[in-house]
């Protein structure tokens, strides 16, 4: 089976993390985000993957390569300019099989695609959308169904008065090649706003996955949530095996002087000084150093970052190569981009986003 994965979005809601690394290959726990998706697809019989790309596409290609490492054939198609979710599919048309999966490239999930495929065949559908329940459908595509699972209506980003179901499109579709004929060539076309409404009543079905794990990782809050869910084992991934029954992975050769509280991942070359506490719900990338008496909780600290003594990091994401001076507090959903330098005695909180390579002097910011 073939899969087409859309990875052309700019990932604006994940800036400044996606200012330097495209969303599909952003590190998530210990591997590029896309590795989880590829592992999941392979488990449902996918052998051939076509990436439809735009923004920072060379980086995606460099990280994922030809797919040998994942046991898959990976190919890449690059749009000359953003074509939208349907235009991107149209652009890949010459590589498409008669039937294929189409996926948004930013979902972490263990949905049973095999069961969805069985319904697709049984109904003779032209398209079958994976559906999941969410608390707030307003940021997604809302789907109303008939009793036989045919789609009655599709409403992208519904306003509050349009919300009468919690079922949304999970960004995983099974499509017959003929659907691609509905898309005008060489134009920006939205599959959600232009193609699904056209297909309603003409062979568009939904398949609900009520018990599945599903998360769109497209915002910093959800990126952190995905990290926690992986290291707590709420979603089954290869990382679950690595963490074992005590939910801690400390790389060989690392001997923390401070405490590591599970669930936590501490990668190669890290140092955790005396009196520091790392965890729970923390990932430290390769070569991160944590100063004496620092406290790191519910956070991701990427490769090579240096955290000074007595710092407090809670509910934050710190990108690669960041340097933070002593006693600085980074909390409340703050996101520090690659190579940021923060001096001593600062407080960064309330979802503040600091863009790559910015330098903040000692004692410059407080709330
Ligand atoms: N190649 C290409 N070109 N890819 C694109 C383009 C484009 O112009 N625009 C968006 N994409 C990719 C993004 O990279 C992402 O993987 C996917 O298409 C969906 O775009 P998002 O920007 O993440 O959309 P969303 O999250 O607001 O909404 C979509 O996903 C929801 C589920 O997470 C919609 O499909 C909703 O209906 C759905 O509920
Ligand atoms: Mg998304």
Broad shape: elongated
Question: Considering the protein shown, what is the CATH homologous superfamily of the largest domain?
Answer: Spore Coat Polysaccharide Biosynthesis Protein SpsA, Chain A
Strand line-up across the major sheet: 5-4-1-6-11-8-12
Rg on CA atoms, Å: 22 Å
Mean pLDDT: 95
Architecture of the largest domain, CATH level 2?
A: Alpha-Beta Complex
Number of helices: 7
Count of beta strands: 32
Offer a few descriptive terms.
binds guanosine-5'-diphosphate-alpha-D-mannose; binds magnesium ion; alpha/beta; 30% strand; 7-stranded parallel β-sheet; 367 residues; 7-stranded mixed β-sheet; UDP N-Acetylglucosamine Acyltransferase, domain 1; Spore Coat Polysaccharide Biosynthesis Protein SpsA, Chain A; 2 domains; 18% helix
């Amino acid at each position: 089976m073939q899969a087409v994965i859309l990875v052309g979005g700019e990932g604006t809601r994940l800036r400044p993390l996606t200012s330097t690394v495209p969303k599909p290959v952003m590190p998530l726990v210990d591997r590029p985000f896309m590795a989880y998706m590829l592992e999941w697809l392979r488990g449902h019989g996918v052998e051939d993957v076509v990436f439809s790309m735009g923004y920072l596409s060379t980086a995606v290609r460099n990280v994922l390569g030809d797919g040998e490492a994942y046991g898959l054939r990976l190919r890449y198609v690059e749009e000359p300019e953003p074509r939208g979710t349907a235009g991107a599919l149209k652009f890949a048309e010459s590589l498409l099989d008669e039937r294929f999966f189409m996926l948004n490239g930013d979902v972490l999930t263990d949905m049973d695609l095999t069961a969805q495929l069985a319904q697709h065949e049984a109904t003779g559908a032209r398209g079958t959308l994976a559906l999941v329940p969410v608390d707030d459908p307003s940021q997604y595509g809302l789907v109303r169904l008939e009793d036989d699972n045919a789609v009655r209506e599709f409403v992208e980003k519904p306003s509050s008065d349009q919300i009468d179901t919690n079922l949304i499109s999970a960004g995983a579709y099974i499509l017959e090649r003929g659907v691609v004929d509905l898309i005008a060539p060489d134009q920006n076309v939205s599959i959600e706003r232009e193609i699904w409404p056209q297909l309603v009543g003409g062979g568009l079905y939904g398949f609900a996955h009520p018990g599945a794990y599903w998360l769109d990782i497209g915002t910093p809050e959800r990126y952190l949530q995905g990290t926690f869910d992986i290291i707590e084992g709420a979603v089954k991934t290869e990382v679950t095996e690595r963490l074992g029954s005590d939910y801690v992975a400390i790389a060989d050769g690392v001997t923390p002087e401070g405490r590591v509280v599970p669930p936590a991942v501490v990668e190669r070359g890290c140092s955790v000084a005396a009196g520091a506490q790392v965890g729970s719900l923390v990932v430290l990338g390769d070569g991160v150093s944590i100063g004496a008496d620092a406290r790191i909780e519910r956070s991701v600290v990427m490769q090579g970052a240096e955290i000074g003594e007595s710092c407090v990091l809670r509910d934050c994401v710190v990108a690669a190569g960041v340097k933070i001076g002593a006693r600085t507090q980074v909390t409340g959903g703050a996101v520090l981009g690659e190579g940021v330098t923060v001096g001593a005695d600062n407080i960064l909180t309330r979802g503040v986003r600091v863009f790559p390579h910015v330098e903040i002097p000692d004692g410059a910011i407080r709330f």
